[in-house]
Design brief:
By secondary structure, this protein is an all-beta fold. Helix content is 2%, strand content 48%. This is WRP73 protein.
């Protein structure tokens, strides 16, 4: 494993381009585009204000920079650095901005969700979509880029509109059987739209492309409901994470529950492997000590190394009782992700913040638990193979694959707390992001 030097960053805004050639990062109001292999700066753009969001176009030719405070979006071209585009929403304000799948239209959501404005970079034409709903995930594109679903709210009822992305014509408009719709997400095969309700109502609805209700699933009533969902890459399974600390798996044939995964504080099954992170103080050979010690040696002297031990079951994990009188209590399944080969599902139960659970989807059983010393901040699967990268807010990155588990210290000076990470599309490198800096980690092929 090799690591680059640290580069400045603000707002956790570091993104690989879809074609994998460039890496865009933001420092206050500057957008820096680097070559992925050399990390040399290819382009440097200056925006009108501090950047709060960036997104690459699907063909990696343009970068969108949104400045929500100013209600402005600026678009930069990699091929023509002199070309520039500024979209000002004016008094309508701006709360969200994204690319359409063709990379030539920009969708801006105005303040108070009054409308979505569709701006064309090619014809400079403008279209409007009325009544978008203010919810966590209100716009969803199919993976093939042909259709867009928008959650709407009018006359105190929830609706879904499906648009054709080529000409923004309305294809279908239908009401949903939700109390207060919270999010929508297409299956990867673009055939089924999952719609789920507010956390006060456990309900998930599955609609076809033409607006037919295929199925409704409710696990229980009168308790906090759905917290997170994830489609498997093959579209055969839908995983639903709930506030009751369980994941329920629905199948794509009957949309009935196949199984449910519980996340207890004690792991008793002898077939489950529990990797426990343990700290070990670095051993120093006295002959190597020179005073004052060199900077590289000093940083290795005082940083604690860690490794994984395999724990004997039963294992008790650190369980945190949620504070019942506070808003957004830390409880339930907050993170879920399927591996790219559909074989594994990684989950995090917010009541047990230091553990990652990895489930074998073929056997529908718990396979591995990683017990970390610090709370899990983020995890993400390698896009090419079943390999999971985890970060916990310290200067280490953790990798799991079916072959085993490894903890790697990032060799940087000073305080580098990794709170987010993202894989390169090739799976050969990843960006490790802290609040004010980032580095790139390069992996050899047979690493783990």
């Amino acid at each position: 494993m090799n690591f680059s030097e640290l580069f400045k960053l603000s707002g956790l805004l570091g993104r690989f381009s879809p074609d994998g050639r460039c890496l865009a990062s933001c420092v206050q109001y500057r957008l820096v585009v680097r070559d992925v292999s050399t990390l040399q700066i290819l382009q440097l753009y200056t925006c009108l204000d501090q950047i709060q969001y960036i997104e690459w176009s699907s063909d990696s030719l343009f970068v969108l920079c949104a400045m929500y405070k100013r209600g402005i979006v600026q678009v930069w071209s990699l091929e023509q650095p002199d070309w520039h585009c500024k979209i000002d929403e004016g008094s309508a304000g701006l709360v969200a901005s994204c690319w359409s799948p063709d990379g030539r239209h920009i969708l801006n959501t105005t303040e108070f969700h009054l409308r979505i404005t569709v701006w064309s970079l090619c014809t400079k034409s403008v279209s409007y979509i009325k009544y978008p709903k203010a919810c966590q995930q209100g716009i969803a594109f199919t993976k093939d880029g042909r259709y867009m679903a928008v959650a709407e709210r009018r006359d105190c009822k929830d609706f879904i509109s499906i648009f054709v992305c080529s000409d923004w014509q309305l294809l279908r408009h239908f009401d949903t059987e939700t109390q207060d719709l919270f999010g929508i997400e297409w299956a990867p095969n673009s055939c089924v739209l999952a719609v789920w309700d507010t956390c006060l109502e456990y309900k998930i609805l599955l609609y076809s492309l033409d607006g037919r209700l295929l199925s409704t699933y409710r696990a229980y009533e009168w308790s906090l409901g759905i917290k997170s969902i994830a489609w498997s890459p093959s579209s055969q399974f839908l995983a639903i994470g709930s506030y009751d600390e369980k994941v329920r798996i629905l199948n794509h044939v009957t949309w009935k529950k196949v199984t449910e995964f519980e996340h207890p504080a004690t792991i008793a099954n002898t077939k489950t492997i529990v990797y426990k992170e343990v700290e070990k103080s670095p051993s120093v050979e006295t002959e190597r000590l020179s005073f004052p010690p060199t900077r590289a040696l000093a940083s290795s002297l005082f940083s604690t190394q860690s490794k994984y031990d395999i724990s004997q079951v039963p294992v008790s994990l650190q369980y945190i009782k949620p504070v019942a009188d506070r808003a957004n209590p830390k409880m339930g399944i907050g993170m879920l992700a399927f591996s790219p080969d559909n074989c594994f599902l990684a989950t995090k139960n917010d009541n047990i913040p230091n553990a990652v659970w990895i489930w074998d989807i073929q056997k529908l059983k718990l396979f591995v638990v990683l017990e970390q010393l610090c709370a899990i901040q983020s995890f993400q699967w390698d896009p090419r193979q079943p390999r999971l990268a985890v970060c916990t807010g310290n200067s280490k990155v953790y990798l799991w694959s079916p072959a085993g588990c490894v903890s790697v210290q990032v060799p940087v000076e000073g305080d580098f707390q990794i709170v987010s990470l993202s894989w390169h599309s090739s799976g050969d490198s990843m960006a490790l992001l802290s609040k004010d800096s980032f580095c790139v980690c390069y992996l050899e092929r047979e690493e783990v």
